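Data card: per-record layout.
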Amino acid sequence: MNTEKILHKAIELEALSLDEGMLIYEQVPTNELMLVANECRQKQVPGNQVGWIIDRNVNITNVCISGCQFCNFRYPDLKLHTLGPPEVAFLAKKERKSFRETLEILVKSGMDSLPGAGAEILSDRVRKILSPGKCNTQDWLDVMREAHKMNLVTSATMMFGHIETKAERLEHLIRLREVQSEKPEENYGFVTFVPWPFMDAGTVLQQRFCNVCALAVYGRRDRASAKRHSKHLNCQRLFAFGSC
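The structure for this 244-residue chain is written out next.
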């Protein structure tokens, strides 16, 4: 495959395949990705105004069943939080209701939108290691499908730079892209995508990466340096929501 043809395809906002995404990830210089990604952005959102989100996750409780090994949560003084797909899936299972019924009850109780929390990497291989108590990939996506049918405003997220592979990052984007393409035409769907690098300080996962033997089980960490972070963000712009 020719990278120039793939970049042209991206500029035309055509959906890239996994193999095409891997090729530009591995072979196209970051500065070139930035130029092409900006051209894609100009087509989708013309002009020079861009937005940034400073993301903070403030937990509502210290009682948690997820078992996430990337979390350094202890006992914050302020305990406020909004529900995401893992919580919706948990409540639905506990109450023996469908995702749709659970979302409708939450909306009646005052929920206005659904954040893309708990996505991490949408790969069951990764999720079984990182957060075994959270819902699986299919349930996360299906909660979002129901939210989109109800025209709830939603967002999507990705936590990267831990045990995931580049292919799993791209598969994550493909799955989000598929869900976005299924939403009713006039409905909101995902209105924003928030990728964030894994912050390892004080986490169980950090301790496991310090153990050489653990690398055979958990894989080698792909640390998100500034350069890799930039390349990752620009690959996402080219890859994520073309043709949606």
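Known properties of this structure: DSSP finds eleven helices and three strands in the chain. The first strand starts at residue 113 and ends at 114.

See the next section for split statistics.
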